[in-house]
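Interim report to the steering committee. The following record documents the input for Trans-1,2-dihydrobenzene-1,2-diol dehydrogenase (382 residues).
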Amino acid sequence: MLSLSPLCGQLSDKLLHPPEENRQKEQHLSAASLQEFKMALRWGICSAGKISHDFIVALKTLPAVDHKVAAIASRDLKRSEEYAKQHNIPKAYGSYEELAEDPDIDVVYVGSVHTQHHALVLLFLRAKKNVLCEKPMGMNAAEVWDMVQVAKENNVFLMEGFWTRFFPVSEQIRTLLSKKDLGDLRVLRAQLGFRMDDIPRLVDKKLGGGVILDLGCYLIQFASMIFGPEKPQSITASGFLLESGADETVGIVLNYSGNRQAVLNCTMMIDLPGEALIGGTDGIIKIPNHMNSPTVMFLKGKRWEWPLPTSPEPLFFEHDIGLRYEAEHVRLCLLKGLKESPIMPLHESEIIATISDEARRQVGVIYEQDRVQCINQSESRK
């Protein structure tokens, strides 16, 4: 069993030992101050892809007095204009720089491919824009750390879009765990799989392809929500690679303090139900399916369900109407003047990325962004 180590040497303390001011406990974000907010939150959409479409549709299920899509940008102006026409968006841009310069944007949703996240998030942060970035926020922990620092330097809000955290099922789980309803936690078992090996983006390493960054990060963040946000004491990962070198099936074991263990499996080769089991000395929580976007859970014979609202338009991905939960959470954070989420804090994004890095290293997946980081570290030591 190998201990946690990053791709380029010893794990930096700045990733795993966050400053005391960032050790925020989860807060209940009340809507009590909403009456002071006179305008809808003005969203800018970065990238006119499938996930951006679904995010826009999800916003339509929230009150129009609270959320408004004010602009959309992509490198293809025609595509931006098509999305703007389809969704009644006032402005369409053919460059991301134009969106960054728009003074009428409160927060930007970054829904581009993984490899573009770092540069685009930095662009918007430096333009003093609040940012919600799709997961994974960075290709590696170094990119995530870089974004976090720039957000702090510019005094703006930044959050990684792990939508799972904001579903009512996840909120209920956190409540039950805080009340010790499961007793002492011991085991988490979770799996997630979709047949996706025919999707070019997911098998091409140059585009950030691989199952760890696409699905495994959901499992890792779930383990961090249950057992963290402390780092695991050790990580063991093994799996299989495609001919392209991207990871297609991976198993990860995370051992935490107090003899707590998470066993995680992800694959892009078959469809799995997405089941998760959280075991404690006094009970077991079961999520029967869709653990990354859960609507049903069981505990001690009791069944909880929070059905998703009906989508007003067709979606590209199942359950994506649930993106509404993270969008509303961002609005409440901004109303309170927060610069990061107490439910998905930035230091936890750094830890999740570091775990992903180590899992990839053990499986044998190295991206160009990792090599660039190693070169930069070597140059800085000269």
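The chain is about 35% helix and 20% strand. The committee is asked to note this result when reviewing the revised timeline.
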